[in-house]
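Notebook p. 47: complex prediction with S-adenosylmethionine.
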Amino acid sequence: MTGTVDTSAYPAHRPASPPLRVLRSLRDRALDARDTVLGRHDPLVPPRRLVLVGSSQDEFRAIGQQWVETFASQCGLGRFDRVLDIGCGIGRVAAGLARYLDELGSYEGMDVVPAGIEWCRRSITPRYPNFRFQLSDVHNAEYNPTGRVHASQYRFPWRDGEFDFVFLTSAFTHMLPRDVENYLGEIARVMRPGARCVITYFLLNDASRAQLARGEVQPGREFRHEMDGCLAVHRDNPAIAVAYPEPVVHELYERHRLRILKTHYGAWCGTPGARHIQDYVVAEKRPGADAGLGAA
Ligand SMILES: C[S@@+](CC[C@H](N)C(=O)[O-])C[C@H]1O[C@@H](n2cnc3c(N)ncnc32)[C@H](O)[C@@H]1O
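Predicted complex, structure tokens below:
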């Protein structure tokens, strides 16, 4: 494991043939059974067939842990915080956080894929009752194509100002502009004034555009299809990977009264010494930001 971690690899984007899938599934089940027999099974790491982010269970654990370290050391996460994780997947970061947050702190994870939420509810909540998971039937062409609610209209099921810390690791990188716009508004709404949010992106700026033009980006990050003000890797299914112009992101934060504290650039476009693959933006809800907004 190097210092750089991937938050977005998702084998669903690299479909295997049916016989290969059957062979992989048999192999995964055999390896899971072996781990259980040898007492090597980590109850907070899902079985191999569910580990759809990253390439192995060790990487799953390491990446979750590395995000928790980043949040705590660089982004102001505290052990007693009330934390919200949008697009929590199969609990990769939740598993690391469970070992970090005090029992007086709390965690809410939300996602649109039932299998991940069910696993988290079964495996994490019984051990850490202050960790809860919410399934929302929001449409995403890649992850929940039959979802009934538009992401651009979805209202989060939490009260105004309920959270101290909100994060999204590799969720906006799969969402289109109108959806991101609504979600960022919802994120700002549920943050208390002074709360922090950390969100990963593929940011388009002079440096990353130059890398793209030279073809010097990681495989699967060839953003070249212009749509609605963002760039997608795949025209037919943009939700597979989306990049945003950095000024557009800045404008969006400004509109939602989120003050950007720091932007960290990732390894996806060759940033030397980057700790994570994707870029991430650390922001704070401006104190007094709710005044006069007529919050619901
Ligand atoms: C690449 S995975 C990352 C999962 C997790 N954040 C992690 O780092 O392991 C992207 C996740 O975003 C979720 N997602 C996509 N669209 C969403 C939406 N509109 N609302 C909430 N989650 C969404 C997907 O279901 C998927 O679990």
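Notes: The domain at 57-285 is CATH 3.40.50.150 (Rossmann fold). DSSP finds seven helices and eleven strands in the chain.
Next step: compare against the earlier run before touching the bench.
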